[in-house]
Amino acid sequence: MSSPEFSYSQDVLHQLAADVLRHARELGATACEADVSEAFGLSVTVRKREIETIEYNRDKGIGVTTYLGQRRGHASTSDFSPQALRATVAAAVSIARLTAADPCAGLPEAKLLAKEGKNLDLYHPWHLPVEEAMTIARQCEEAAFAVSPLIRNSEGASVSLQHSQFVFANSLGFMGGFPTSRHFISCAVIAGKGNRMQRDDWHTSARDWTKLAAPAAVGDYAARRALSRLGAKRLKTRQVPVLFEAPLASGLIGSLVHAVSGGSLYRKTSFLLDSIGQKIFPSHVHISERPHLPGAMASSPFDDDGVATHDREVVSAGVLQGYFLSTYSARKLGMQTTGNAGGCHNLIVRPGSLDFRGLLRKMGTGLLVTELLGQGVNYVTGDYSRGAAGYWVEDGEIAYPVQEITIAGNLREMFQGIAAIGNDILVRGSKQVGSILIERMTVAGR
């Protein structure tokens, strides 16, 4: 099913992909891949009760990858005319003639390709007039200002919708594609005045716009988060337990994904080389990949190579069971693709029995981190150092906000030191995880 707002039907996209494959065959390519897509969207931002931006986007493109044996060439175009299609394929073939052979280049094994389509409920069009989007954004920001007179400024409230569709095909006979939608409401505000100001934000996202949080609730929560940070202090350097709030815990899981992804492994730029079968987490940590969850943000029946995706256990009782590999990276490692070309698909970290307050009580005295700054992660060594802000916790209760601190450790030790995972599960993109309590890290301050 396609939205009437798309310029092309799925049948037309299929035909364009078939034409690309035919042109490549006629020009002598031994194999070919084609990716045909289009997208449109609307984004509205309100700041201090006034419309700041209204943006429309409409994009389309065709990517062509051709192979001459194990020589690869790629070209792309946004012109769907027959002449442009032929010229783009010709350019890809010409590039392939000039490149060196790569023994790992080429299409996946035919037996690994997805054989049948699955309706994963990923497309929920939001026919949102711009005037209604403006109203929603205003409601969101107004709810933030209504919380307290101390909410004095705003970085804006935004509403956006994005609809897209694609068809991917290759010369092994695979052809598949579907439409998707992503919707988003966010708010960022500033509390306080002078040199005693704090900002914070919140957002909600979903494929189905009816499942978004209420705009007023998003603005209200963003304001309360900003207010709670007023009067933040610095800490003296110490070693303490650290609790990563759920939105940041997904970043820790993202660090795992990066470290055990094919590119990092075959380039030998990961601290988790040759780690399959190793216990890298405590026994209570279990991480699953579930690519076929209906309506989920990272669901797909196949990866960017056309390889069928499957449910699997990535970490079981703390032991790493598998990497994240595309066809190419798997060949570089002498392994088989895991269906992860383009990324992971709905990583679910099994929650423990404690809610957020239970995690605070378990931590006792330590640091709750709600914001991270900078990119201080060395994936070769696992060394981790990030600017941070959050709250100091004493006797299981939040005592006061803190800022201008750095948290440091080593990811291998941090993973081993996971004391608990909360049941306050939050979905952020391809990851679903609750807050994560680390037994001990260095907190550097004044």
List keywords for this structure.
single chain; 446 residues; alpha+beta; six-stranded antiparallel sheet; six-stranded mixed sheet; 9 helices; 18 strands; 37% strand
Layout of SSEs?
Blueprint: H1 10-26, E1 31-47, E2 50-68, E3 71-77, H2 82-98, H3 130-147, E4 151-170, E5 175-193, E6 196-206, H4 215-228, E7 238-244, H5 246-259, H6 262-266, E8 287-289, E9 312-316, E10 319-320, H7 327-333, E11 347-349, H8 356-363, E12 366-373, E13 383-394, E14 397-410, H9 411-416, E15 418-421, E16 426-428, E17 431-433, E18 436-444
Helix pairs in contact: 1-2, 3-4
Can you tell me about this structure?
This protein is α+β, with helices and mostly antiparallel strands and 446 residues long. It has nine helices and 18 strands. It has helices at 10-26, 82-98, 130-147, 215-228, 246-259, 262-266, 327-333, 356-363, 411-416, and strands spanning 31-47, 50-68, 71-77, 151-170, 175-193, 196-206, 238-244, 287-289, 312-316, 319-320, 347-349, 366-373, 383-394, 397-410, 418-421, 426-428, 431-433, 436-444. The strands form three sheets. A six-stranded antiparallel beta sheet has the order 3-2-1-4-5-6. Strands 10-9-8-11-17-16 form a six-stranded mixed beta sheet, with helices on one face. It has a five-stranded mixed beta barrel with strand order 7-12-13-14-18. A hairpin with a 2-residue loop joins β9 (312-316) and β10 (319-320). The radius of gyration is 24 Å and the shape is globular. It starts with 9 loop residues before the first helix and ends with a strand. The mean pLDDT is 96.
